[in-house]
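Figure S4 source data
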Amino acid sequence: MSHFKLHTVETAQAKSKPILENAAKQMGAVPGLFAVMAESPNTLEAYTQLHQQFASSSFNAEELTVVWQTINVEHQCHYCVPAHTGIAHSMKVDGALTDALRNREPMPTPKLQALQDLTLSMVRNRGNVSQAELEAFYAAGYGQQQVLEIILGLSQKVISNYVNHVAQTPVDKMFEQFAWK
């Protein structure tokens, strides 16, 4: 069992407080991931900035979900898979896509499959993807910008997935209905 502290707005360091307050205002509660990361204001700030940058990338809601959940499932993140299932629902992403991602099933379109394939290769090969993999990604309709944005999303997910593994962050009540093993 982990002994990482789950901070509240009251117990967090001063630099973490505004981020926790904003999260509580937007989500109705401080997510457990933020409560853990509040111990390190720089980690919390970096994570939230990466999240904002990736969420405003060139990817649409389905594509964001493919990148996030592909990484979460590959990293076996007990916290992020349910959290991003809830986020996908709030973004009106088709539940069939979310289920396919959670269950490691094929994507519903060749373009989303190409996105998942390159994302998985990035994770599994630590960024050492082949020219053939890049060409297949480009042939599906993506470009160099999206390659770089996968890396941005991966950067965000490494922080959250690893923090959740180390801290054994409990899944938030709001995401318990989407529990995953």
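Figure S5 source data
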Amino acid sequence: MGKIFRNILYQGRNFYRDKSFIFWSLIYPIIMAIFFYTAFSGIIDMEFNNIEVGIEEENPARPIFESIDILNINIITEKDSVDKLNNGDIEGFIDNNLDLSVKASGINQTIIKEILDQIKQMGELKVPFERFDFDTNYIIDRNQKANSIIILFYSLIGMVSVYGVFPGIEIATIIQANLSNVAKRMNISPLRKSEFLFSGIIISLLLNIASNILLLLFITYVLKIKLLTDIGPSALLIFVGNLFGITFGILVGVSNKLKLNAKIILSIAITLVLSFFAGMMNPDIKVMVDKSFPIVGKLNPISIITNNLYRINLLGNTNEVDIGIYTLLGWIIVLNLISYGFLRRKTYDSI
């Protein structure tokens, strides 16, 4: 036990001397979170107030507009509507012919247009105004728009969870005599590689989970975005994601003879591609992939973490969390077996 503890301390100091580990695990995620917040804060912080709409008193659809809770109706003339729109007193004006005038484009103006389109469609079907029934909840529609942006942050958490790949590569480098001087000394010493590997996995988990917690604290208390509402299953999912990242890093480290920097670049490229399909660059990509290639979303580790964090914390649905965790554990087992196969074949003519 004492040897394992000493190995943990040694490898912990070694990781924090590695500038690439510090940047990719601690600094880069916070930079990405700030970028997302800056780019989309207007949508995330959207206040769902009622929409100010101007209509003429003789408008035939006036009773319908007055019955929709989300609309605040202002009875004005078409002549006054120009000044009202310019001053921002109303967000849209509907004349007696059901034509819409707006000063700017946005979600509120889109909602007004959707209501108008529905009224016109019902009018073409000769349905009397008194039989119109608008059950669409436009507040929910706008919430869904904001929630689609939150997917970016969940995919960022998923990507950072898998960033255990970096210490995983470092572990693999330290135990291979053809890759580092430390490994040469270790291979001719009585030190058991299994103990060193186990110690590396433990410290990698601790450090990467610490970086995850730091990112979540930054998003929660600095950016004021609450991502986790159900801590238990979310933490378990993030923990397994970290374990997957480490095993994936070990595989990248033992499966080729590339230099350390090249292995890091390779792992960054792979995680960025996985994050792209998980919706980190654009939530619409994730929707398209889930519809057209659902198997990709079910097998992509970052998609698994992203999807389940979204379901757990925004939809309150934990029904599929166990499937996601089992899939990640399956990946971990497969990657470990492949890495073990590479390590068993490692022999050295001289050290």
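The beta strands are 51-55, 71-75, 92-94, 100-101. Residues 193-222 form the longest helix (30 residues).
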